[in-house]
Amino acid sequence: MSNLERKREDFRKYLDSTGAIDNLTKALIKLYEQKNKPQDATKFLRKELCLSCHDEEEFESLIADLDESNRKICELEREIAKLKGNIKRSSSEIDLALTNGFDDLNAAAGDESMLKKFLSKQIFDELKGLRTNFKGTLLDCIQAGFENLSTSNGIFACDAEAYKIFASFFDPLIEKIHDFKNDDKQAELDWGEACRLPDIDENYVKSVEISVNRNVVGYPFAAIMKIEHYEEIMAKLTNAVKCLCSENFKGKLFPLDGISDNDRRNLMDEKKFFKNDNVDLINANATRFWPQGRAIYANNLKTFYIWCNQQDHFKFIACDSNGNLRNPYELLIEGINQISKDIEFIRDERLGFITFSPFDLGTSLHVSIQVEFRNFSSENRDKFEEIACKHNLKIEKIDDDKLYVISNMKCMGMSEFETVKELADGIIALIDVDKSLLFTHQFTSASIDLSAVQPLLAEAKLPGEIKPINYTLKLKPNIEELSFEGYVKIFAIFEEPSDLITLHASSELEIKENEIKLYKNGPDIEHENIKIRRVGQNIKKSLLEIYLREKETQGTIVTLEIEFSGRIWENTEGMFKGSYIENGNENKVYLATSFRPNNARRLFPCFDEPGMKAKFLVSILRPKAYTTLFNTPLRTSENIEDKYQMDHFELTPELSTYSIGFLMSQLSAIERTDLKDPLTGNVCIKVYARKDLHESLLSSNVYERIEKSLNEIKNYFNVDFPLKKLDVVALPNLFTVKATDNFGLIFYKETQLTQNSIYLVAQELVHQWLGGSISPQWFTEFHVNKAFVDFIAVNTAIKLDNGREFDRNWPMTTLYSIYYEFSKRYPHSKITGMKQETLCSKTQLVLRMLNYTLGAETFKKGLQAFLVDRDHKTFLAEDIWSAMTKQAHADKKLKNDETVSAITESWIKKERLPVVTVKRDYQKNEATIEQKLYLRERPHDVPEADKMLWWIPVILTNEDDLDFTKYTPKTWMKKERQIKISNMPEKDKFLIMNAEEVGPFPVNYDETNWNMIANYLQNTEKRLTIPNLTRAKLLHDCWNLAYSGSLNFATALNMTLFMKFEREHTLWNPIFTMIDHIGRHIDISSVHTKFNVYFAQLLQPLYIELENEKVDDEEKSKINLRNLAKTFLCRAGYKPCIEEAQKEFKKWIDSENPDDDNPVANQYICPVFRFGTMAEFEFGVERVVNFNSEKKQSERTYLLKAVAGCPNQPEKIIKLLNMTMLEDDEKLTENDLFLILSMLSAGSTGYGTLIKFLDNNWTVIKAKFESKTNLWDRLISTATGFFTTQEGYDLVAKLYKNRRNEFGSAEHIIEKSMKNIKEEAKWSNENLPVIEKWLDSQDYDHSKFIV
């Protein structure tokens, strides 16, 4: 019998033994006996074979019964939610909750709570028994603040009346938030005209979003709303949107109760879907009955949305992805006006539109504009901050290196149009600054975004009752539906007895709670189930909590199995989708992950803390046309159906969850042209990119850069690369994340890999050891991790290419920026997300100091010992310091009672820097060295400044022994205020402390020592015996110390005399910075012209030399130095520059149609308007007035800025002011006047002429502009707010005295101006005579300058 026959016989016996053949035969006989054969024979047989089965009619009836039961369940759930929502606390319960909450609030440590600052005992006792007409209580307004004692929000109005009933609480809060006093009144509703908004350079603007919140008359707010309120408000919207019939507004209303997965996904992709996951709103009871009564209206064009009952009753949103401001503004106005025809919104005469949150009162208008700044960096941050402060803007850095979100901080006290106008003006000013910054280098920090880490510092750690050992993870992404399914098996051990397992799982994950399995493992245990009491998700904290019926003992090993599903995002958090075009028109899609710092929980349930390391065994399903890259090499792959492959990867070493990652794409590996085998040591390196980019990457030597960097880092660490393979990916269109350093798999932006940078490559490679193989124990250690990575990456780049990509400016750019930031009275004031970056930069410089003072070899060996000790483990900063201390003691670099920890703690834990003063006693051959807090800004009144002390290395270099490679400290100032040092050099020899900027602190000397240094530097041969960095430090220190009032300006100016011989760009950088700082301060005085001419004469030979040395492919630093020199010389009136500009300008004057064509480069326009004739100026004004509307509006804007901001003669500005303020020229608008005022504030000729013009024409100007509050306030601010001398104070005081009580809304502006000028005038009175006297002692050749 054949094998097939044997199988058939076995199957027949099986059917016979089970009765299947007998039953089937009987059914067929019965079918045969039927006289009227049924149409559906199969149905007949099915019924005969299963007499108990339901027929179709019965089945359909059962389905109907099930549907009805489900409907009733939904109704009951709604009723339960309604009843729960309607439960009201009794008066005694409210009193008790208020009392307990108030006690807890005042007992809590810290002062982060906004509620704590404004809820005094007196106000609490006064208001706790009051009720609004909707029965709202004080508790309803502040319960979110009670729940979260550290929130800066947590305060909401229970209804519109709450702002009056609880006014004694809300009014001071509103004044603090909005600078809106009790007697202030919100401006009338005024949208203005969108066409009057100024043009913003759309090359900079990436997207615009404008929104307003509105609440309906006759309804309470979310904290006390009933289900009926939610439903009625949504019904109003349902009816109102029917009037949105035009093409701009046609769309659909999506109730969230029952929204389809596809619709939810689309709204999420558009980033216009809202959820109930805001902690403050949850605590405020504003998410009850979710998702009932919630809806989103979206137009088909994806430019207009209405959120219903998210926070306020309605939120209107208009957006534009092309960077246009006017379009969404017009759309928002029209949309609100249409809806307002059917729905009346609450508006108060004093407070404006009434909102749930007091932060949104007034216009409730919020504008967010995403802008790309090309030259923004920490060293020039002050210029951006100044504009942000002036225009009431908030600047937030987002993940991308150059993208920032600019938004308005003010929504009270101005009309809608004024708010948007001020924002637009501010962004234009910011863009102008960005364009003007020619010389800047920003060290990017690719892997750790500290602005993202900062909020996690306060995050509560997991209880720690259980620790993962390894994960088995299976993922099935669906690219078409942008969703995924997954399964995770976690092998874990109980670290302590517990009946609770807590791990992370984002609220976005759908957890199959009923399918969760938990069982014990062990040598004597075989799959013993553990009973689960219940499972819950803590939405606020993204936690999955599994409660057990019994407590498990310490040491119990368990396996936890969880099935889950979720969606794929486009916002680069968790798993995200990206796309690109290849071969001209072929759209390709990829999936990638980004888990830093805590986004693994968005993909799968896990212990998502850096200290919870475990091994991962991962399998990922992919379409066959795709390739999947993971942290480890591919182990096996199996076919799943026809279209898919399941890839199984090798087990990882122990990793933190943020270090794992994968990429599923159709990118291809770049074939090596130099080697057949892509191996460096035992590491297989492959670079992946779209095919169109392969040639560009090869020409940038990408493999060579990776290999050289890898070998250099490996040799430095003396530890092999921790993996067998390294995949480097140039990920297309990776807009919103920096390079992502998954362990063994690094994602770069395409531009980062093509720009031939070693530093960017080295950063991510260092992270494979520090941050990957060895992980920070908690988020508090991330800034130390990042500082080490940056420091080693910089050293790697400098060693491999001699610092070429830094233009030899490292560490000066970093040093100068932190000197400036930490010397402010209030560091990190205006720009969020920068504080941690600055602190990290300081830590990096502290590491540099240790590298010098301990010695590079000791520093390296200490780090190597740390790496060996913590291999594949976690670390605290103290672990590094301990390893270095041990090595330093062994190498006799520190005394036994000295530790690296003591040194670093004194630097890292303070957001400040010291200044050291060396005063020599030339008779005794001694020196007193003193340290104190370094402050540039006045007044020097920082609290507890006298208690701040640092460990400071005393490294001294004297004129007799100019060896600048000796970095071993003579001693350490061990948090001592003052020490004495003996054996100083002879009295005619200078001394330098902290040469080469070993430590991040400036140094001051007595005047004699400064003058000896200055004289030495003027000797052309001797000067070069002092290295570039030390010469730059001496210049930078003396100028900043003089500016801060710690050094005589004559001494500082003496230190500049040698610059006429200087050609190194590293030394000119601090000079240009100080010319700008000091120049702005002395602008109005007679000293300014002399000051400019002096420095212009220093620059003149440098510029001529640079012009004569022009060559192709010259260094970027030389190009920038030439441009900066020329810019300053033109501004100072250098005749060759002015003559060249006038010659070019004449071509425009002589052209046949000057309004149609401008042949003049922008660089020539300002010098002509500054120093040229009145006729040339008037020609420029005519071009503004007669501007051809068909040309780019930005050209007119630039020309108007030059006309207003460049002139050096008052008569030119008076002509412009006459035209705009007195003559009513129709072609010069109010928008133009705003811009003119902004430009006049940049120089003393501008604001000095303006204040006199205002005083002379007061009656006419006041009558014309006082009612236009924003414009009037700007006018007074510009005319009075920028003086710095006694002369300026007298001008402003005279105006104030002559026009007392006539300033209206600007009264407080001029009063504040006078206060500020008085403080600045003290500086001017002390320093201007000194500066002028010194300048008068110099020889000038005025022949080449227009004075």
UniProtKB/TrEMBL annotation:
As cofactor, the record names: Zn(2+)
The entry's free-text remark on the cofactor is: Binds 1 zinc ion per subunit.
Name the Gene Ontology molecular function terms of this record: ATP binding; kinase activity; metallopeptidase activity; zinc ion binding
Principal subcellular localization = membrane
Q: Which residues form the Phosphagen kinase C-terminal domain?
A: 204-437
Localization in the cell = Cell membrane
Q: Does the keyword Amino-acid biosynthesis apply?
A: no
This chain's protein is named: Aminopeptidase N
